[in-house]
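User: Predict structure, ligand flavin-adenine dinucleotide.
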Amino acid sequence: MFIAEYLQRRRPSISFEFFPPKTDEGVENLMRTIKALRILNPGFVSVTYGAGGSSRVRTLEVVKRIKGELEIEPMAHLTCVGSSRSEMREIVRELTLAGVENIMALRGDPPKGETHFVQSTGGFRYASELIEMLRDEFNLCIGAGAYPEVHPDALDADDDIRVAAAKVAAGATFLTTQFFFDNTAYFAYVDRARAAGIDVPIVPGIMPITSYKGVATMLAMNGGKMPQRLLAELEARHDEPEAVAELGVAYTALQCRDLLAKGAPGLHFYTLNRSTATRAVVSALVATDAIREAALAYEATTLARNAGVTAR
Ligand code: FAD
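Assistant: Predicted complex:
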């Protein structure tokens, strides 16, 4: 199943992202976590791609197991870090042989301890170059990253949109955003993207807050921002981990409800390999009918479009 086709057919799409564990035991734990989330009926799940060789082998292993054992559509992430073009072709061949049809094509973060991305000898410099190769040489659905709060290396917000447009022109058929906590940043990004002619679905990336320190570190890495009032509430609880996690679930549920009510095509959860917070958030969206209402709204828009009526 091509994720872009799924996103046309069925909305909102609920999806989950995991990273490959380092050990066999970790992989078994992850399989249990994914099983626990299967009840939420995800459209697909994705597995990130690290900088090291061993973690890359695990990405492939986990993706294969998700497809074979859990029968959930997997998406493998792939980055340009540390590989030549021909090595990347080999990796993609292996993924396609394992039945993988969806790839999140990225430039990649620098390996641990390094501050800047370095192009490998004979490798790709930008995600758009990888996307072009995937489009020209393979039959795959390609997703790419988007940055509502602007990628830290981008010159400015306009440059960031130009890069996103280049990735779509190269063959990306949907975009998934970096996580954010302020929905106005996402909707402003979607408006800028549409004005620039980007017409593919832009799926918001959601990070349920589970720890104060964890989220602060992630924000510092990605250059993201946190709304002042959320920050104040988290700081007031900084030495009460359970209270932070409770606030995190409540905030994320409200954030997701607002995104769906205003037409986001789906929600992609950065689970950090844990199920509890994501499960609570999605269950709250089900219990309040937020998912059903969004699905009905999308059906109505699609029917109106097919009937030639201008939809709201
Ligand atoms: P690009 O689109 O190539 O952009 C990188 C930088 O180069 C940007 O600043 C951009 O402005 C600039 N640029 C791009 N094209 C041009 C051009 N033609 N001319 C001049 N400048 C240009 N990282 C991992 O290591 N593993 C993962 O699995 C992973 N998964 C992710 C999933 C999602 C949904 C997202 C949003 C990010 C993910 N990342 C992952 C992080 C990502 O790799 C980093 O944010 C990385 O720094 C940028 O990747 P990109 O694909 O957006 O790069």
